[in-house]
Specification:
Blueprint: E1 18-20, H1 31-35, E2 41-45, H2 49-63, H3 77-102, H4 110-117, H5 123-129, H6 136-149, E3 155-160, H7 181-191, E4 197-201, H8 206-211, E5 229-234, H9 237-248, E6 256-260, H10 277-306, E7 320-324, H11 330-339, E8 344-346, H12 362-370, E9 376-379, E10 388-391, H13 395-405, H14 434-443, H15 450-456, H16 461-477, H17 506-513, H18 528-546, H19 552-576, H20 587-606
Parallel strand pairs: 1-2, 1-8, 2-3, 3-4, 4-5, 5-6, 6-7, 7-8
Antiparallel strand pairs: 9-10
């Protein structure tokens, strides 16, 4: 059976120059089964292992494959569910690729679609387009070579490093630290046969990173590259250096640094201290050589300590650099690759409107398509206490306030992955639970107070972010969805989704990314840099409202944020002075937003604190 060389996964131009990031716990949960055969890489979430097992069962049944549930009493049941699902997806994608290779090169076949969707710069596509100039034995040989060169996209998996709960064991006592959620998810990934990448987000978890040392699959052995790669989501170059050093000291190399906008993204929003995406990606452009220089010696030292061979070419390993967060037109994709020398870009929110790529229930997809600016907003709905992108009018939001109005706020907490609060209990519980909210609402004065609404706003996201996926997959498999249809669905798209207004085919969206069709979005859509700048200005206003003028720490935080934002504006001024818009690129919106924010910052300087 065909196995793609691991190193090929690092060379984005061989297949596509974009990837589909993780989206919630469920909205990309089976995306590899939908898009990997087209050479498109995507990321699933490893938060909800029970939903993963349900999705595995549904797809195995559809394909007539044997399915055996994991024994729930197994202390490592979580890891085993994840391992089995990743193995299943890997084998299924290999099967899909084998079938594609057997097809002819006739127009209208899936094989034809595979090559059509490749970027025009792909060496593979260039050879495919030249087939028409060949005939006879020469053409047959080239067709065979092209078929063998077809590569699937990578099946990658995301762990949000801070979601590392220690569940309660059968005796009511938290399990040992090695059996925590993040570590078992890592183990499931490491033990699978899937040669994908482990995507680590939300900062350093030292014990989780330490756990990676248990698995040789992340290391070079016998001169070969690591079987599995490590991708780190980072906010800036400093973060890349810090996390890369931490891993390098353990002999672990980073296959890719994935830059993500702090606010112009989906899911949880981790705002920077005023640094913006343009200057951040430019620093990577100028300083990326340091990543190789900083890490190679540390990794070689680890290998020597272990008595392992450090391969001669390993010191030349160069991590890929990609970016995601708010990109929406081909010109912005080109900017990242051509101006800043990045290897690829991530496109998440637009694919929420591509049924071929993402499993989302009909109601939620229709609400996304109908959304307008303001419908995607930063909420307090996450029990983690981190700002969370939310869709106004989602079925989860409607259900939450219906229960509140009925006097029974909170969730039954069927899964408990976000159980971290011990305010009212000995063992941690989630702030979205009925138990917590009843106690907290009583403490703040009862359900009829405004403070009660601030308590009740927390959604059961670890469960509800998967409901829409389960519903649509059941529908696709022909199962009854009467109960599932009533399950509230949370979704956390990036603000960019409001510019995409209907369902799209997969090929249509790929052609949009590569600029091969008229743009799918309005010319009025602001540049990704401008949209992010606007979001950061809104964040600054919130900081002002929260700043106590007599609290030096508050005042210093606001001043630093303002100074960093001003520095970013200065960078944009300089950058814009030497740039003209690419076709379809709204650089004018960025110039206008820079001018607006510069004036607004003068007001912040004059009245630095508003909170009494």
């Amino acid at each position: 059976m065909f196995h793609m060389p691991i190193s090929n996964r690092l060379v984005y131009p061989r297949t596509h120059t974009f990837h589909i990031p993780v989206m919630g716990t469920g909205h990309s949960i089976d995306t590899p089964l939908r898009v990997a055969r087209w050479g498109i890489s995507s990321v699933i979430s490893l938060v909800d292992d029970r939903m993963i097992e349900q999705v595995h069962r549904l797809h195995a049944r559809r394909l007539g494959r044997e399915f055996q549930p994991v024994d729930a009493k197994d202390p490592k049941a979580r890891a085993e569910r994840i391992r089995r699902y990743l193995d299943f997806m890997h084998q299924e994608v290999l099967s899909q690729m084998a079938q594609l290779r057997l097809q002819s090169f006739q127009a209208g076949t899936d094989k034809d679609k595979y090559f059509r969707m490749l970027p025009d710069s792909s060496p593979l596509k260039i050879r495919w387009k030249a087939l028409g100039t060949l005939s006879g034995a020469q053409r047959q040989a080239e067709e065979l070579a092209l078929s063998e060169a077809m590569e699937p996209g990578s099946i990658d998996a995301n762990i949000m490093t801070k979601l590392d709960r220690r569940p309660l064991g059968p005796d009511g006592v938290p399990v040992e630290a090695r059996l925590s959620d993040a570590k078992l998810a890592l183990e499931g990934f490491a033990l699978s046969v899937n040669p994908g990448n482990m995507v680590l987000s939300a900062g350093i978890n030292p014990t989780l990173y330490g756990c990676m040392e248990e698995f040789e699959t992340f290391y070079r052995r016998e001169g070969s590259e690591p079987e599995k790669g490590v991708i780190i989501k980072v906010s800036d170059f400093r973060s890349a250096l810090t996390q890369g050093r931490f891993l390098a000291k353990k002999g672990l190399e980073v296959r890719e640094f994935r830059i993500e906008s702090g606010l112009n993204c989906g899911g949880h929003a981790f705002a920077s201290e005023g640094e913006l995406l343009g200057p951040i990606v430019d620093e990577f452009r100028k300083e990326r050589h340091r990543l190789q220089e900083e890490f190679a010696g540390l990794m070689a030292g680890y290998y020597r300590k272990k008595g392992w061979e450090w391969p001669a070419g390993a010191q030349d390993h160069i991590a890929a650099i990609t970016v995601q967060g708010g990109l929406g037109v081909e010109a912005e994709h080109r900017r990242m690759l051509e101006d800043f020398g990045l290897d690829a870009t991530g496109w998440g929110a637009p694919f929420l409107l591509v049924p071929e790529a993402t499993p989302i229930d009909t109601y939620t997809r229709e609400r996304l398509a109908a959304s307008v600016p303001g419908d995607i907003y930063l909420s307090d709905s996450s029990p983690l206490g981190v700002p969370f992108n939310n869709l106004r009018g989602s079925s989860a939001e409607i259900d939450l306030w219906r229960k509140f109005d009925e006097g029974r706020p909170g969730s039954g907490c069927p899964k408990g992955f976000l159980s971290f609060n011990t305010e009212f209990t000995e063992h941690p519980i989630c702030t979205a639970t009925r138990r917590y909210q009843a106690a907290k609402i009583a403490e703040v004065g009862g359900i009829h107070t405004e403070a009660a609404r601030q308590v009740a706003v927390k959604e059961c996201i670890c469960h509800q972010l998967g409901n829409g996926a389960l519903q649509v997959i059941r529908e696709e498999m022909g199962e009854s969805v009467e109960g599932a249809a009533k399950a509230p669905v949370s979704i956390c798209p990036g603000p960019n989704i409001v510019w995409f207004t209907r369902d799209y085919s997969l090929e249509e969206m790929v052609d949009h990314i590569y600029g091969r069709i008229p743009s799918l979005v309005s010319d009025a859509r602001p540049h990704a840099f401008a949209a992010e700048l606007s979001l950061y200005m809104e964040h600054l206003e919130k900081l002002r409202a929260q700043t106590h003028p007599e609290n030096p720490r508050d005042v210093e935080k606001l001043a630093n944020f303002r100074a960093n934002l001003a520095g970013s504006l200065s960078w944009y001024r300089s950058w814009l002075a030497t740039r003209s818009s690419l076709p379809g690129e709204n650089l004018r919106s960025l110039r206008e937003e820079v001018e607006r924010v510069e004036l607004a910052l003068l007001d912040v300087a004059e009245t630095p604190a508003l909170c009494d």
